Amino acid sequence: MDRQVYGVGWIGFSVLMFLLSLSVQADESAMPEVQPPIGVFGSTIHAQGDVMLSYRFNRDDYKGLLVGRNSVSDAFVASEYAVVPTALRVTEHVFEAMWAPVEEFTVVVSLPFYEKSLDWYASTNPSGASTTTVKGFGDISLNFLYRVFEDKNGRLHLNLGLGFPSGSIQESAPTPISNGQLERLPYVMQLGSGTIDLKPGVTYNGYWKGFQWGAQLLGTLHAGTNSQQYTMGNEYSMTGWLGRKWTRWFGTGFRLVWQQVFNPEGEDVRLLPPESPLSDSRLQASRRLDALFGIDFYLTGGRLKGLRLSVEAGLPAFQSLDGPQLRNRWGVTAGLQYAF
Q1: Whole-angstrom Cα distance, residue 314 to residue 334?
Q2: Across the strands, what pairs with 118?
Q3: What is the pTM of this model?
Q4: Which of 187, 176, 141, 182 minimizes the C-alpha distance to 160?
């Protein structure tokens, strides 16, 4: 599995270097403005003085259990754990404000609001399924985008971000075996990391004869140990896209994204012994490749000129989980962006 991960990383790095080699050969002049897919965060540098407000709605749906790439039955999990998870729905509302104080530099502030609903049941009572829901704000992020290169065919910028521990890591609720008493909920049901997070990355946007493409590498590195004596697993993602604006008001795009999440270091002692696989710190790692298709609509006149409405949806083409974990079935992102 490690060979697969590093192989994908080298492929992405090679693609990024190829795109850069194309741009270096071009005459230096400003490239046309391009809009990457709505699911790409920290995707573009803005012109000096520009402000953009953004709202994104994300929904991910999980159902069924995997160990590695293989499905396992509820009965198998029930033989090992006291609680069996069956489905998870994660809804995220992300509010962003972007400002470019100078030509090469854009500041982005991002705040997510989560709603997570988990279906599960006690292994001794398969007919007694229940749903547990948590809601609240996640970790606020402050991101800096710094342009290091631009010509008429492409633009490269660095993503330098910090995440602050504003999201709760002590969410508790009755579980299927707690007899109505509050218990600490699994890692996936928490709203934040509880640590200062470093979010380095690099993004390339390219343009050629009406087509736009790009690539992005991002990481999330959790610094230190949180108040519950564990550190969430580090994450990285790599994505590449190709799109075209067919008219002044309509465009489409296709994107592939690879995501890897590692297991936490340490564990929340309030989850010991693990009642479900979702509470086992050794079983939270995942690797996934998603294929997504998006559409964009633009307002080109009137008082709301500059408004963009976008939708992007996709399915996993590959996923391998340190399970039993819930399998991702689909995801969708819809968003509004208004620049002025």
Answers
A1: 12
A2: 88, 132
A3: 0.88
A4: 141
